[in-house]
Each structure stands twice: as C-alpha cells, then as structure tokens.
Design goal:
With 298 residues, the protein is mainly alpha-helical. The chain has one domain. The chain is built from 14 helices and no strands. Helix 1 packs antiparallel against helix 11, helix 7 crosses helix 9 and helix 12 runs antiparallel to helix 14. The longest helix has 27 residues. The relative contact order is 0.22.
Length: 298
C-alpha cells in the first residue's frame, strides 16, 4: 500500500507540471535546462546522504545509449513545455500521452516485437481519439495556437517514446542511476543550445517565477523521481500501467477546475478513446515485458 501511495503521489506531482510551466517567464529550453540542473543537484545530494554509489563501469558500458537518451530527454522537455505555453494543459497532456502509441508503432522495428491485432486496433482507436481532440472547434487565432501546441505535444511524445525505447537497451543500471545520468547529461548538452538560441535570461527572471522554477526542479523533478523509482520497483507491471493514468487525469482535472480551461464533448470523447486504448494496450504489454520499469519519468 505504501508503494502505491508513493507512486500515486509521483503521478499527481507530474500531472501538475503544466500549471507551473505556464507561469514561468522563460523560454522552454531555459526551463528545461534549469529544471535538469536543480533536479540533478537534488538527486546527487540524495545519493551522497544515502551513501549510494554510481557504477561508473556500467555508465561506461552504456555510454552511447545514455548520451542518445539524454538528447531525447532534453528534446522531450523542450517540446512539452512549448505545448503548455501554446495550448491548454488538457490538450498538452492528451497529445503527450500519445507516446505509448508511438512506442507500439515503433516496437516491431526497434524491439522486433510482433504487432498483434489487438494492438493495431488500439492504435487505430487512439488515432481517432487524437483526431477528435485536435479537430474539435472552428479554426481561429486561438484554435491555431491550440493546433501548434498539440503539435508540440505530439513531438514531445515522439521524443518520450524514443526515450522509453532507448532505455530498454540500458543494461545493469538502476532507474535512479539512469535518471541522474540522463538529467545531468541533458542539462550539460542544453547549455550551448540555450546560449545559441535564446541566450540566458535567468537574470531577467521575475520574482514571481523564481519559486515556481525552484518547485519545478525540487518537487517535480527531484522528489517526483524519488517517489517514482522507489515505489515502482515494488509494484507489478499492471499496477504501474493502471496507476500511470493518474498523471493525465490530474492534468485534466487541474485544467478544468483550477484553470477553467474548457473541453468540448467531442474532445472529452477523444480523450477517453485515447487514454482507454493506451490503457488496454499497455495492460497487455506489461504482462510480457514491463517496459515502464526502465522509463524516465515525465
């Protein structure tokens, strides 16, 4: 029960990210960089206090996969944060949760897994759901921004799916170790990218944004990841697949209740189709390979 509570808390934490991103007045790449730095420092401190050691031999053996996965993590965050800035939290969350569908589509090519009829049906239903989410409402300036935001969310989902697939090739490393290396490496790689594309606007950060950025790094990254990895190792694959849906449901709840962002009936139906189809497909795949046990959290 304790593990389930910890995992649920991590999902609630991840589900509230969009609210904080919306009100931090920095570019998405800068937010991603600072989130990674703060989160890395938190996890390093945790490992030092707990006298947990990092196996550099394992890091060396997985160095190329870790480097590539760190790049996908950085890209994932940048596009996800852009999605939150352009569209509603609910739209961003639903488009981002298309990632499991991308995993299903790519699995036959990358993991040589057979794509069953059940999975094909789930993919088709998820695509129909995504179309309903995107197509609801007329085309206007606001809707155009929604389309752009959903597009960013889908790009973030592609990067996240790539991250999940790459993590399956990492050998002899724990989830916390993988996350620390990926966070640190992604932050390091984002420094020149931010310098070239945006410059560093941290000195111009408003007073109201500072605590939000700190919470994003400490709570949504450091504490969220700790709860995530400390609990998931004691849960079954099916429990993880089911409880993971607290994340998008939290985002939808906050979007509707606290931010007063409206969803049409068609979008709600589309969201239900998308989440329902991915739940069924993941619940099946977790029995076979438990892919979530090596994924990096949101």
């Amino acid at each position: 029960m304790k593990s389930k509570i910890q995992f649920l808390l991590s999902m609630v934490i991840f589900g509230t990210i969009g609210v904080f991103i919306r009100y931090i007045d920095l570019a998405s790449s800068e937010i991603a960089l600072l989130r990674g730095l703060i989160g890395s420092l938190f996890l390093i401190t945790y490992m030092l206090i707990g006298k947990k050691k990092l196996s550099w031999a394992s890091v060396k053996n997985n160095v190329y996969i870790l480097l590539l996965s760190s790049i996908t993590l950085g890209g994932n965050w940048i596009f996800l944060f852009q999605a939150y800035k352009y569209t509603t939290v609910s739209n961003a969350a639903l488009s981002y949760y298309f990632a499991p569908v991308f995993v299903l589509i790519l699995s036959p090519l990358v993991l040589k897994e057979r794509l069953s009829t059940k999975k094909l049906i789930c993919i088709l239903i998820a695509i129909i759901g995504m179309i309903l989410v995107v197509s609801s409402g007329g085309l206007s300036t606001t809707r155009l921004e929604d389309f752009i935001g959903i597009g960013y969310g889908l790009l973030a989902a592609v990067f996240y799916a790539s991250l999940m697939l790459l993590n399956k090739f990492i050998k002899n490393m724990g989830g916390l170790e993988i996350t620390l290396i990926q966070l640190g490496t992604a932050s390091f790689l984002l420094i020149p990218y931010v310098f070239i594309t945006e410059g560093f606007g941290i000195l111009e950060l408003s007073v109201s944004s500072m605590p939000l950025l700190f919470i994003l790094g400490m709570v949504h990254t450091g504490i969220g990841f700790l709860l995530f990895f400390s609990s998931m190792q004691k849960l079954s694959g099916q429990s993880i697949a089911a409880l993971s849906y607290v994340d998008p449901i939290t985002s939808l709840f906050i979007s509707t209740v606290f931010l007063h962002e409206k969803m049409t009936i068609v979008q709600l139906i589309g969201g239900a189709l998308l989440l329902g189809s991915t739940f069924i497909s993941e619940n099946h795949s977790m029995k076979l390979s438990k892919p979530f046990l090596k994924k990096t959290a949101k």
